[in-house]
Predict the structure.
Amino acid sequence: MIHISYQDPRPIYEQVRDAYRQQILAGVLAPGEQLPSVRELSSRLAVNPNTIQRAYRELEQEGCISSVRGKGSFVADVSGAAEARRRELLEQFDQLVQELESLGVTSEELGQRVGGGEG
Amino acid sequence: MIHISYQDPRPIYEQVRDAYRQQILAGVLAPGEQLPSVRELSSRLAVNPNTIQRAYRELEQEGCISSVRGKGSFVADVSGAAEARRRELLEQFDQLVQELESLGVTSEELGQRVGGGEG
DNA sequence: CTAACTGTACTAGTTAGTTTAATACAGTTT
DNA sequence: AAACTGTATTAAACTAACTAGTACAGTTAG
C-alpha cells in the first residue's frame, strides 16, 4: 500500500503517482499485477476519485500502467519507462553534483558517499 | 544578473531566491556586495515588487543576505548558511542515489559519474 | 529640511492549480 | 440485470501566487 501525507506540500495526485511509479519501476509491483480501482483507492485514502484518476492517467501516459475500461488498471511492461526515468534522474544527479561541488564538496567525498562502505 | 522563466513551473519568487542563493553560496557574489533594490529588480524583471521582496525576505531568513531599511540588501557572511545548504543537498543526494540504485544503476556507475573524466 | 532613494507592511483583487462533489456514460463480469 | 471497472464533464470551494496601489520608516545627497 501507499501513503499520502497532508504535511507534504506536494499535491495528492503527485504523491500517489510518484509512490506507484517508484514501486513499479523498482519491480516491487510486477507487470500484469492489478492496482486498486480508482474508487477503492480513493475510498481508502479518503480523497476524491478524480484525484486518483489523475494520478493513474499520468502513470499511463508515462507507460507505467495500462488501464482498461471495465477491467481495471494493471502494471505495464516498463522497460521503456524505466529507461526514461533513469535518464531523468541521472540528469538531476548531475545538476546536484555540480551544485554540491560549487559549495566545496569534493568529487572524492561524493564518490565515497555513493560507494557506501566499500573504501 | 539573474533570469526568470515563465515556462518554469516554479513560482517567480522561488526562481529569484534560488538563483541568488546559488550565486551567493558559491562565492560568485562576495560578502558585503550590494544586491539590486527591490524596486529596481522588480522593474528589470517586469514583476511586482512584492514578489522580489518575498524572495529577499526568505534569503534573509536563510542567512544569505542582510537587508537594512534605507540602505539596501547586501550579501551576508554565509559560512553558516553554506553548511546548512550543504547538509540539505547531501540529503537529497542520498535519496537520489537510493532511487537510482533501485532502478538498477550501480554504485560504480554513479562513482564514475561524479569523478568526471578521471577513470 | 527636502527630495530621492532604500526596505517594509498592508489591503484588495485576479489568476491558476488542486480538490471536492455530483452525475453520467461505457465496457466487463457474474 | 446488477455490480463492478475506467472515463468524462461541470460546478464549486479553496489555496497559493501574483499584481496593484498605497503607505510608512530609515538613509543619503542636495
Q: What stands out?
A: The longest helix of chain B spans residues 79-102. Chain B has five helices and two strands.
